Amino acid sequence: MTDETTPLTASGSGSGSGSGYVALPPYQGPSYVFPGGVSPRARPSKLKQFQCCVTLTFIVIVIAALGLALWLSGSGYVGNGSSSNNSGWEEPSFFFATNESVGEMLAAVKRPIPDEPESEWALGNATVDEGAGARSVSAGIKALGDREILEEGLQPSAINTPQFRHYRSLSTNPEARKLARRGYVENQATLDIAQNYNYTKQPGRSNIGVGPVIVLPDPQVLRLDCDFNERYRRSTGVCNNKEHPRTYGASMVPYRRMVAPDYGDGIAAPRAAHGGKQLPPARQVSLNIHRSSYETDSNFTVMLAVFGQFLDHDITATSLTTAQEGESIDCCARGTLEQHPECFPVHILAEDPYYRQYNLTCMNFVRSAPAPTGRFGPRQQFNQATAFIDGSVVYGNLEQRQRSLRSYINGTLRMFLTDDGRELLPISSNPEDGCNRMLMTRQGKYCFESGDDRANENLLLTSMHLLWARHHNYLARGLHQVNPDWDDERLFQESRKILAAQLAHITYNEFLPVLLGRNLSQAKGLLPAREQLDAPDTYDPQVDPSIANCFAAAAFRFAHTLLPGLFNVSRDNSTPEAMELHKMLFNPFSLWTPHGIDHALQAAANTPVLRVDRFFSLEITQKLFEGTAEDRVPVCGLDLVSLNIQRGRDHGIPAYPVLRRHCGLPPVDTWEQMAQAVDNATLASIRQIYDSPQDVDLYTGALSEPPLDGAIFGPLLSCLVSDQFMRIKLGDSHWYERKMGPQRLTKPQLGEIYKTSLAAIICRNSDDIRRVRQHLMERHRLDGNPYVNCVDLEGYDFDFQPWSEANEAPQLHRASFSQATSLVRVFGVHNNTNATQVTVANS
């Protein structure tokens, strides 16, 4: 297959090579310079012409470089002191860079990149007095009321349709729905006051900015009791940072903005094209740029994508707009007189090669719920998950969910015990959960409950949930053996703490080095300090670990390009057997059979991924949540790539060049500059669809970049992903490698955590897997990656002695804490620090 990427320094064309790059001949220069035969008489003249040409070219380059440097300096493009003093980061003063030099540029950044400051209120001196603010709030409340009246007459999506399953895969909890109602009122109030003051968006990426405080009816102040000497995390992530206990990394707060949003109207409308025109339909971008490809990357396995999705659900959970009681919204319903105001459907062209056979012109898409901010300003979205790698995907992000999953017996989680003695996740008997099927329930097979509502979205993800729930119980039982006097609360919290530490260790020791390359991971401090037990403490209270909007809505959706169309489900690898991806979605029923989890995990470990590039499997671009004969619904599925692009526009994620500049990467503001960042074929495809580089969606641009040396990511994804994981590590006061504070692990305990591997976790908690590759996310490594016996893996036999009470010095800590933080009511709490009463206990 002809390859789709070329090195950044290459030009011209060539044939594909086994390494995945197009092999290009060395540049020979124009034909008149030293052609194959030069007569002796012509040679001196030609030499002089050549020398003159070289000299003039050199002079032009020098003048251009000086002019560019002066322009960059004058425009403030070269990093200023305020942004680089503490971060070690500055923007480049040139833009033609090689793959190697870009990697060095990224490696030089040792601290998180400062976020772009929030823009000031665009209405300037126009005073929003109390009366004007109250009138706008009344308009916002009326808009919410009108919307709810409209919702009463709308029919939700039919159960088991592709759009209903998509809705279930983005489930929104009741607390989030309450906050979303407040966010909607704030958003509508901002639109009203902007209209009253004749606000119009200025050219470029301007927005209305952060305005005055919004006062809504029935204000309830959340009382937050923080004891920063607590040994264990709060389920909601609050009380992690002393200065920002309610916001930094907590659940139910707005996503952090690396750069200001870019809305079509500067307030809330989805991003528009440069100059205010319409962007190309997301489906057209998917068809023309992200077309199908089946080129695998034999170095890595689907386990990389499975673990990535599990981790993603631990740190991100975007709230989707729903009707009043959480019902789905159908934006493509025929015969509906009025469309829901939060609809933003994907337009399907009449000549669509797939959907035209179904006569479809609309793909359902509902906007993410607006987040309350407590101020007039542009629309924000919020994260239902905590930003910390804390195992909340196992336990839930709210106290109520966590309590419902506990057995309250020796610290264990509630599980379903099969007749043959296997532990499965608690069952979900809800027939309207988008997963349970009548045929299966008649056989006594149900879908499952877990700490995250998305657990049933695909078989491999459900298997990962089951694996880690079993692992918690393994830890709880082991701790109970060495500490029989510990009560249920202490056993549960200590097991939860160990599990979170192991999940974080796998992330930074196995997962990130594959994405970013080990060299870049090491340069950015993203590798565990296993050989540096006396290294300085990692925590920096000035770092905000909250998840960036562009990370959640675009960058960390990279794993979708990894997914192959067919999975190797052969039981013994002797007889080829494969399963299509779409048949694994909302289909966890094979876990009920003996060795069901083993077969699922082995399929993930034995199937190679596709390459991280702009190409996707047809299973992703037209068969997502495809219906079955049993469902009695249209069989055509959704296009996940279109939905991802649409989600970025919904969130007001700025265009590809904006994020490149923010990362200090060589700019791509013109087609000539973009030619240095992507290969010729990709550039040609992008230019056919987009009118300007300033229109290119972040998702499309980032996936179009060739990978850096030793990584599977290109420069922009490397920047965005590494920056977020730097923040998660540095901004977490409960980070497992901390050297200070009551949250820290002892050196013997930390040494045991360092032995953790995903392979050992799987061996220990599967039904009967006995041999695995030591590095399960990889197939081939320079140092080898053979199959080994599970019992020979380091860390297979977890040593609980470092947690024995007999070995532990007396510690003052609380194993239980106030439940006051779990209740958030609509119109209840401003999501800024000033709106929260905080009681702090220090010692």
From TrEMBL:
GO terms for cellular component: extracellular region. GO terms for biological process: cellular process involved in reproduction in multicellular organism; response to oxidative stress. Heme b binds at residue 560. Its main location: secreted. Its EC number is 1.11.1.7. The chain crosses the membrane at residues 50-72. Keywords: Heme, Iron, Membrane, Metal-binding, Oxidoreductase, Peroxidase, Secreted, Signal, Transmembrane, Transmembrane helix. It comes from the Eukaryota. It is an enzyme of class 1 (oxidoreductase). GO terms for molecular function: heme binding; lactoperoxidase activity; metal ion binding. It is found in: Secreted. Pfam families: An_peroxidase (PF03098). This is Uncharacterized protein. It comes from Drosophila mojavensis (Fruit fly). The gene is Dmoj\GI22008.
